[in-house]
Amino acid sequence: MTPLDYSAAQRLRFAPSPTGMLHVGGARTALFNYLLARRTGGAFVLRIEDTDAVRNRPETEEPLLEALRWLGIAWQEGPDVGGSRGPYRQSERGEIYRAHAARLREAGLAYEDDGAWRFKMPAGRTIVHDLIKGTVTFENATIPDPVIVKSSGGPTYNFAAAVDDALMGITVVLRGDEHLPNTPVQLAIQAALDLPSPRYAHLPLILNEQHQKLSKRHDTVSIEEFREIGIQPEAMIDHLVLLGWSSPDGREEFDLEELASLFSLERVQKAGAIFNEARLLAFNARVLRKMPQQRKIELLASAMKRWGYHEEPSWIASFLAAYGDELQTIEQARPLVAALHADSVTIPEEERARLSDPAVRAMLAALAERGGDPRQVPALGAQFGIERKEAYHLVRVALTGSSRGAPLASLVPLLGPERIDARLRAAGNQGAATAR
User: Fold this and answer.
1) Domain 349-435 adopts which CATH fold?
2) What angle do CA 259, 262, 263 make, to 5 degrees?
3) Fewer CB within 10 Å of terminal CB in the chain, N or C?
4) What is the mean pLDDT of residues 302-306?
């Protein structure tokens, strides 16, 4: 089998259907097509396959395109940018399909069946020289004659895709493994119409950690959902490209320019790729750690406004200094921000008895009078007969309801004097109420 010539400009396409949000599998397919087009100095074409009137939701087209833009994937031809081989929405190519279906009927290569038209699969076998899977042979006798025009008059997927790939000059069709059985049908249709055929390459399935196909019911699967939980595009790109491909030097961190120069089909695996969300979160934490401080402040400020909190950049900078290292996503800051803005905290049951001690209550009241300054804790603990470590522990529980977290000195500017005073006094009262 002749390998792909990377020195020749290749035309590739991504052809989503506007039926919902962009699935991570679709995003990976788009990314691999984009990278191969960039690697060869060719063109990346976006085509909208919207001939399924039942499943199509036109309102999802723009969010789908926006998800691709968010990832940094750009196309040279498409419904929004035009091009010489359009239209780029299948719903606008009806005359083209009707003309090619008529050619098949006139040649005796299609026949009517209950109002629909079927293509006569030729005898023999179809050999697909897949650029990833290798040579795959199909016995045509096992393939039912495919419907090419539905009884409604609209084209089927296999017919429209075969015609469009040829007329749009696509040289490599790079798509998911589930489309492999469609390939002999599309090749046969192109041959019957005397149209050029692209080369085909089929990507391994993306599986969840139970080695099952990703499910919308059980898994987070859309780019939009990952955006909502705070995944950054750089992390998503790193994760997507490693779903079935490996870098020659074993790296796991890239930018799109680097990837375009490194990408090749020879390094795409044949077996299924595991979508590991923990790995994605680790990649995202890495992106956040390396992100300029001002950018992180802007991201968190924007998120906090959505959550209903409005703070100055200085407060957000203090928050990041206290909690930034433990964040894998910006969204993970939400419960921390909410806890800092809460009117009160809930003291764990096992801590209340200790807080009911008169000496502890007196220490917390004295600390409240001093503005909650953590530098005062050792002296106040000694004054009221409480060991230093225990005193710090009790103050932390009183202020946060937890025995762990950011240093007390970091919490003071985040909580503010009024909230500190209220929490210190309330903690002693909660303990006293339990004692009674």
Assistant:
1) Arc Repressor Mutant, subunit A (1.10.10)
2) 80
3) C
4) 96
In the chain, what are the helix, strand and coil shares in percent, each to the nearest 5? 50, 15, 35
DSSP element (H, E) containing 161: helix 157-167
The total of other beta-carbon atoms located within 10 Å of residue 303's CB is: 18
Name residue 267's amino acid.
R
* Domain locations in the chain as residue ranges: 291-341, 349-435
Ramachandran area for residue 274 (φ above 0: left; ψ -120 to 50: alpha; else beta): beta
C-alpha closest to that of 78 among 111, 131, 34, 126: 34
Q: Which amino acid is located at 280 in the chain?
A: L
Q: pTM for the full model?
A: 0.91
User: How many residues are recorded in the chain?
Assistant: 436
Query: 120, 133, 216, 270: which is the annotated catalytic residue?
Result: 216
Q: How far is CA 280 from CA 33, 216, 224, 285, 331, in A?
A: 21, 18, 15, 9, 14
pLDDT tens digits, 86-108: 999 999 999 999 999 999 999 99
Whose tokens are 């750690």? That residue is 289
Q: For this structure, is 216 an active site residue?
A: yes
Token pair belonging to 13: 């396409």
pLDDT in tens, 176-185: 999 999 999 9
For residue 171, the SS3 value is: coil
